Amino acid sequence: MLEKSEVELISGHAKLVDENTVEVGGQKYQSKRILIATGGSPSITAIPGLDQAWTSDDILQLRELPSSLLILGAGYIAVEFASILSGLGVQVSMVYRGNLPLRGFDEDLRLNAVQNLEAHGVKLYPHSSMRVLERAVNGFSLNLLNGSTLHAKNALNATGRSPNIWGLNLESIGLKTDEYGAIPVDSYSHTSIQNIWAIGDVTNRVNLTPVAIAEGRAFADTEFGNSPTQVNHTNVSSAVFCSPPLASVGLTELQAQKIGQTDIFTSQFRPMKKAFVKSEERTYMKLVVDRKSNRVLGAHMSGADAPEIIQSLAIAISAGATKHDFDRTMALHPTSAEEFVLMRNPTRTYG
Questions:
Q1: Who's near 345: CB < 8 A, 6+ residues apart?
Q2: Per-residue pLDDT at 136
Q3: Residue 156: per-residue pLDDT
Q4: What pLDDT is stored for residue 275 in this prediction?
Q5: How open is the CA angle 128-132-137, to the nearest 5 degrees?
Q6: Which terminus of the chain has a smaller tally of CB atoms within 10 A, N or C?
Q7: What CATH class is the domain 50-158?
Q8: Which residues in the chain land under pLDDT 70?
Q9: CA 335 to chain centre
């Protein structure tokens, strides 16, 4: 795609010289505009010894499976690889500080993730304050602040990612970062320096690939297409590809409670195609509705095809669909998705 677009690729580590100049391997390149899109990189500062653990990049290069694995963290990467590797027969232990994995997702989806991970044999260690990761004779030892020690053949660092600003020489040109190392930008991805923009994970806004792509497109439309464009970072759908997968768009139940009167509609069932093969896997669905306007503020699902279904619902929610719009939509039977248009009575209400 880059070649077809006649993009010139320059290999090497780049650093900023001034607001119009980038240096790569001793060669300087000048431009009226500079766009920083360096993404994020695994953070290794949470505890000593974390630099010895695998990252998600390393996991994708494995030639053979470890017999056991310690996963440090409880975000997307942690949950997805815990699910994948336990399904391949690895003894997986997941260690994290909070009470539930997947901070930021709806509380019920987080509970479902716990149940599904445990059902797949993953050992969970919540409320665990990690002290140090050490290499042992037969693998790794993770020492916890409560005095206990966990052991495994290998360890995966999934404690989070940080904006990738190493070696960019930002400070020398006066481009400051925030407390997390991210580059502050305005709604047009413009930094505090006139000729420099930044997009994607290096700005630490919504750290998802489609968001970075949208920000890049908006920058191009604004600066080269004579069409000023801002990216709307609300109602961004996201998914975790565990087993079964889960997905969300819009406000969680807790977020909606804070803005006013809210109705919560839920449904939990065993899908027909799972029941036929005697699987105990269940599907969970939730709609978050503003009572005054009747607008659907959020949709959440754990179960087969959740990402595909939530992606479609994201269109409706972004367009301002109401619960009445959902109710008057004819169900497509027999599907799991039809449950989203068959929820008639709220499970609970607030306000």
A1: 265
A2: 82
A3: 98
A4: 64
A5: 115
A6: N
A7: alpha beta
A8: 272, 274-278
A9: 27
pLDDT computed for residue 276 by the predictor: 66
Structural domain boundaries in the chain: 14-41+162-224, 50-158, 238-350
224 φ, ψ to 5°? -125, -15
- φ, ψ at 89 (rounded to 5°): 100, 5
What is the token pair recorded at 154?
């290998």
Number of Cα atoms under 13 Å in the Cβ half of residue 231: 23
- 14-41+162-224 and 50-158: identical CATH topology: yes
CATH class of segment(s) 14-41+162-224: alpha beta
Q: Provide the pLDDT for residue 178.
A: 95
Q: Report the distance separating Cα 273 and Cα 268, nearest Å.
A: 15
Q: CA torsion, points 56, 60, 62, 65, in degrees to nearest 10?
A: 80
SS3 of the chain: the string is: CCCCCCCCCCCCCEEEEECCEEEECCEEEECCCEEECCCEEECCCCCCCHHHCECHHHHCCCCCCCCEEEEECCCHHHHHHHHHHHHCCCEEEEECCCCCCCCCCCHHHHHHHHHHHHHCCCEEECCCCEEEEEEECCEEEEEECCCCEEEECEEEECCCEEECCCCCCCHHHCCCCCCCCCCCCCCCCECCCCCEEECHHHHCCCCCHHHHHHHHHHHHHHHHCCCCCCCCCCCCCEEECCCCCEEEEECCHHHHHCCCCEEEEEEEECCHHHHHCCCCCCEEEEEEEECCCCEEEEEEEECCCHHHHHHHHHHHHHCCCEHHHHHCCCCCCCCCHHHHHCCCCCCEEEC
Say if strands 123-125 and 91-95 run parallel, antiparallel, or are unpaired: parallel
Contact 244, 116 (CB under 8 A): yes
- How far is residue 207's CA from residue 20's CA, in Å, rounded to a whole number? 27
d(CA 198, CA 180): 15
pTM of the model: 0.90
Any idea which residues carry the catalytic annotation?
333
pLDDT of residue 280: 73
Q: Which amino acid is at 126?
A: P
Q: Return the axis-axis angle of helices 76-87 and 107-119, rounded to nearest 10°.
A: 20
Its sign, for the CA torsion 198, 203, 205, 207, is positive
